């Protein structure tokens, strides 16, 4: 099962390697990872989506993260209210006659065409986990050629 | 006053109370060694291999409780420390390892003798630092000692590029260390302690299971007080040896793979396990799903991640075991009613005594017993890793903490001899024995030169059976006696010792054992005793790996 956790860390040399190394050394899987500075440039914020087959493993992950000296706080969103978003860029098969169909999709989802050529288009879209997976199903009907995703960002509410 | 990075480093070490540094020079630490020339702030010991430096610092830390310090150059010097750092990490030993590094401008260029040692040691240190600016150095050294010695102790590495060693700055000693993201919790939760006390008072078959945490936190007296108040049996892990007096009537000795049968049977039958600074390692629990099926578990540990990692815990208490024990003693108002349990445990002791068959040759167990007798039990015993290590844990009655120095978690052959050097420097008034096998001793045998050159008089008892004995034992029991590459030759240990300027004694008969030990103790020099012991003697009791710990191969028992 996937769990979303956030980790506040000291924005120091090597801190990402420490966190990533902990996951690989203990055999935990990272599904996605997004890192950036916070309002305080000395602190970075990581949103990590982890695969953990049970609560015990999730508990170990949070405890082990807390043991890292540069980790300030770990929040397990499984037990908290939060909002999440992910940004995707997708390259799809596209000709101008597809335009109305695509526009109909973007009436339902947050996104738009940001570039197109004779036979392809690049679209951007933002949404939570469910929205993104529904959108991808729709885009698949056009033929998805390439897909890049930021990984999930999560914030407590 | 302006000082160079190297001078700042030495000044910080001195102010941290460092008595001895184990180090080896090289190109990228030349400025620091220049500062060490005629330096008198602490003693400096030159081992003959960087691995020796790390293990010696570790051994020193284990007997004194202080932070051990080692120093090496960049690249191969630094990588040679890694085994010693990993060893300290697994056993939670406070250590600061300092390495030279190529100048900051060359880092990442595959420069001569460059290794990414902070990257390499990340998983085996509690924390590590690459110092990029000499202005940060004093605070980093201070933090390193603070992190190494507080909470669950462990090794911290400081990587020091050559230009930072040479660079100059005002020296400012940071009076206080505060790290916002690191706040180890010492006091146990009072509510949890009350609950634990209640459970203890109601228990019918309680057992105290103690580990290295008792020794690290200096909790032996509190443990003795609680144990006597409860009257219940006490068993320990390899790391807990010395935490409780072996000859005490409540003592069950070590448990686990080579534990006593009565300790293993007792914990399997217990209805309450009080785990104190121990982490339910696989060598202790055996097959996890069959471990102690009737027991509720109270677990006291300073490291939250040790709790409920392997075994489900009913009452977790995060905190320093010494303080928690003091609180717990106050909360336990009466002893539990356990007369039947004690009778039962006593019966187990009688039914499964620790024995070995004396063939009137040089029995390894007998050698250990004779070392105990000759020293009246008042010695520091270091070990390498293998059969001799288990015999040293089983057949010597330890009565005080910090008298048994052994590589527990990592199981590092070659640890004992350099560790005994650190131990002797830490406790010069003590007789220090390193109990070794003929395999292990050859892994860091070069440290003979260190002993002789510095007059560090350790006594090395080699239980020489011509095999890598523990592996041979597994091959005998589980691989149809196919002794694949376990027969091992060695030098003439007597002549070898003599060639270094130490003393060598050979023992081939039982009646020579005690005189050799007595002579070694009296000799004002490092002594190697080559005990030519029974070749295919096994360590029993033994629980095969992955079996329930009451599934015991008894040998004779």
Write a structural description.
- The complex is a heterodimer of chains A (157) and B (557).
- Chain A has 157 residues and is an alpha+beta fold.
- Chain A folds into 2 domains: 2-79, Alpha-Beta Plaits (2-Layer Sandwich), CATH 3.30.70.260; 85-150, 2-Layer Sandwich (Alpha-Beta Plaits), CATH 3.30.70.1150.
- In chain A, 29% of the residues lie in helices and 45% in strands.
- Chain A contains 4 helices and 9 strands.
- In chain A, the strands form 2 sheets. In chain A, strands 5, 6, 7, 8 and 9 form a 5-stranded antiparallel beta sheet that branches. Chain A has a 4-stranded antiparallel beta sheet with strand order 2-3-1-4, covered by helices on one side.
- In chain A, strand 2 (29-37) and strand 3 (43-51) form a beta hairpin.
- The longest helix of chain A is centred in the middle third of the chain and has 13 residues, at 55-67.
- The two termini of chain A are 23 Å apart.
- The model of chain A has no long low-confidence stretch (mean pLDDT 94).
- With 557 residues, chain B is α/β, with parallel strands linked by helices.
- Chain B folds into 3 domains: 2-170, Rossmann fold (3-Layer(aba) Sandwich), CATH 3.40.50.970; 190-351, TPP-binding domain (Rossmann fold); 364-532, Rossmann fold.
- Chain B is built from 21 helices and 20 strands.
- Chain B is globular, with a radius of gyration of 24 Å.
- The termini of chain B are far apart.
- Chain A binds chain B through residues 9-10, 13-14, 17-18, 21-22, 25, 56, 59-60, 63-64, 66-67, 69-72, and chain B through 118-119, 122-123, 126-127, 130, 132, 147, 179-182, 303-305, 308-309.
């Amino acid at each position: 099962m996937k769990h979303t956790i956030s980790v506040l860390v000291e924005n120091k040399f090597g801190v990402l390697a420490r966190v990533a190394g902990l996951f690989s050394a203990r055999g935990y899987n990272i599904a996605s990872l997004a890192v950036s500075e916070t309002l305080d440039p000395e602190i970075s914020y990581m949103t990590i989506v982890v695969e953990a087959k049970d609560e015990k493993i999730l508990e170990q992950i949070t405890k082990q993260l807390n043991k890292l000296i540069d980790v300030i706080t770990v929040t397990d969103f499984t037990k908290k209210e939060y909002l999440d978003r992910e940004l995707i860029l997708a390259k799809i098969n596209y000709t101008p006659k597809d335009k109305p169909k695509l526009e109909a999709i973007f009436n339902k989802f947050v996104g738009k065409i940001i570039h197109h050529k004779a036979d392809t288009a690049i679209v951007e879209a933002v949404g939570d986990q469910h929205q993104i997976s529904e959108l991808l199903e729709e885009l698949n009907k056009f033929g998805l050629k390439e897909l890049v995703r930021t990984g999930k960002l999560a914030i407590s509410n | 006053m302006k000082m160079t990075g190297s001078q700042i480093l030495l000044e910080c070490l001195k102010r941290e109370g460092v008595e001895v540094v184990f180090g080896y020079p090289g190109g990228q630490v030349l400025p620091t060694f220049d500062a060490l020339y005629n330096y008198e702030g602490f003693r400096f010991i030159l081992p003959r291999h960087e691995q020796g430096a790390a293990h010696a610092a570790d051994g020193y830390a284990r007997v004194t409780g202080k932070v051990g310090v080692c120093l090496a150059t960049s690249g191969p010097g630094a990588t040679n420390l890694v085994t010693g750092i990993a060893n300290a990490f697994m056993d939670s030993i406070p250590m600061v390892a300092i390495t030279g590094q190529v100048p900051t401008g060359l880092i990442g260029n595959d420069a001569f003798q460059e290794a990414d040692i902070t990257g390499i040691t990340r998983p085996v240190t509690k924390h590590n630092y690459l110092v990029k600016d000499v202005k940060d150095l004093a605070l980093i050294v201070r933090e390193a000692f603070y992190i190494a010695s507080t909470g669950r102790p462990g090794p911290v590495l400081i990587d020091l590029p050559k230009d930072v060693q040479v660079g100059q700055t005002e020296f400012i000693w940071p009076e206080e260390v505060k790290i916002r993201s690191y706040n180890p919790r010492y006091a146990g939760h009072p509510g949890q302690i009350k609950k634990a006390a209640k459970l203890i008072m109601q228990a019918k078959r309680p057992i105290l299971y103690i580990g290295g945490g008792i020794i690290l936190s200096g909790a032996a007296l509190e443990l003795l007080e609680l144990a006597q108040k409860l009257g219940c049996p006490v068993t320990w892990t390899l790391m807990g040896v010395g935490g409780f007096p072996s000859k005490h009537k409540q003592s069950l000795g070590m448990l686990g793979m080579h534990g006593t049968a009565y300790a293993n049977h007792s914990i399997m039958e217990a209805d309450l396990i009080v785990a104190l600074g121990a982490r339910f390692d696989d060598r202790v629990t055996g097959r996890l799903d069959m471990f102690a099926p009737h027991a509720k578990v109270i677990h006291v540990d300073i490291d939250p991640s040790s709790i409920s990692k392997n075994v489900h815990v009913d009452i977790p208490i995060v905190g320093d075991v010494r303080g928690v024990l003091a609180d717990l003693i106050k909360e336990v108002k009466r002893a539990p009613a356990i007369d039947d349990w004690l009778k039962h445990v006593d019966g187990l002791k009688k039914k499964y005594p620790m024995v070995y068959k004396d063939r009137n040759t040089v029995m390894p167990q007998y050698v250990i017993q004779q070392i105990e007798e000759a020293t009246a039990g008042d010695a520091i015993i270091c070990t390498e890793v293998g059969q001799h290590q288990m015999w040293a844990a089983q057949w010597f009655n330890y009565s005080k903490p910090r008298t048994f120095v052994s590589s527990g978690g990592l199981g590092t052959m070659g640890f004992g001899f350099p560790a005994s050097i650190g131990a002797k420097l830490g406790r010069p008034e003590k007789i220090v024995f390193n109990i070794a096998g003929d395999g292990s001793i050859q892994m860091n045998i070069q440290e003979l030169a260190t002993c002789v050159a510095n007059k560090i008089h350790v006594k090395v008892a080699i239980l020489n059976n011509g095999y890598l004995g523990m592996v041979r034992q597994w091959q005998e029991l589980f691989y149809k006696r196919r002794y694949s590459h376990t027969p091992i030759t060695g030098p003439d240990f007597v002549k070898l010792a003599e060639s270094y300027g130490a003393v060598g004694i050979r023992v081939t008969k039982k009646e020579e054992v005690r005189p050799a030990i007595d002579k070694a103790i009296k000799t004002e020099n490092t002594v190697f005793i080559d005990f030519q012991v029974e070749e295919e003697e096994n360590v029993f009791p033994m629980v095969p790996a992955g079996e329930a710990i009451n599934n015991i191969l008894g040998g004779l028992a």
